[in-house]
Amino acid sequence: MKQFKKISNEVYYTDKTITKIEDHDIKFLKANVKDTEKKRIRICTHLNEGDSLQEMFIVLSKETYIRPHKHINKSESLHVIEGSADVIFFDDEGNIIEVILLSDSSPRLCFYYRISK
């Protein structure tokens, strides 16, 4: 993880204009996710929080829960490389409007979604 700057136990940032993610980087994330408070860990491949496009590699444990949140004027995408996840979309009143089941191993499920701003 020499090419990444540690911000916290859960967040690492690149400081390079060309960022490469290698197998050992993912292995590092997988080995250390259990030691994080929120059971998630990431490498951000954008230079800082002010970048208009923010991309990252995130490892989540099976215990990870990401509370409902809203991105205003921001697009979001998620690509499952390994494992599975359930993504639930709500309307402004809190009603479920769509559930997307993501998986890397099921040909009947998708492994990627994107929502526009």
Keywords:
117 residues; mainly beta; two-stranded antiparallel ribbon
Short description:
This protein has 117 residues and is mainly beta. It has one helix spanning 23-32; strands spanning 4-6, 11-14, 40-44, 56-60, 76-79, 84-90, 96-103, 112-115. The protein is 9% helix and 34% strand.
Q: Which regions have little confidence, pLDDT < 50, spanning 5+ residues?
A: none
Mean pLDDT: 93
Distance between the termini: 33 Å
Shape: globular
Q: Which sheet architecture does the biggest sheet show?
A: 4 strands, mixed
Determine the strand fraction and express it as a percent band. 25-35%
- How large, in whole angstroms, is the Cα Rg? 15 Å
Spatial strand sequence of the major β-sheet: 1-2-3-4
Number of helices: 1
Please report the total strand number as a whole number.
8
Structural class: mainly beta
* Proportion in helices: under 10%
Please provide the ordered H/E string of secondary-structure elements.
EEHEEEEEE
Q: How would the blueprint of this fold be written?
A:
Elements: E1 4-6, E2 11-14, H1 23-32, E3 40-44, E4 56-60, E5 76-79, E6 84-90, E7 96-103, E8 112-115
Parallel strand pairs: 2-3
Antiparallel strand pairs: 1-2, 3-4, 5-8, 6-7
Overall description:
The chain is mainly beta. It has 1 helix and 8 strands, in the order E-E-H-E-E-E-E-E-E. Strands 1-2-3-4 form a 4-stranded mixed β-sheet, covered by helices on one side. It has a two-stranded antiparallel ribbon with strand order 5-8. Strand 2, helix 1 and strand 3 form a beta-alpha-beta unit. It starts with a strand and ends with a strand. The model has no long low-confidence stretch (mean pLDDT about 95).
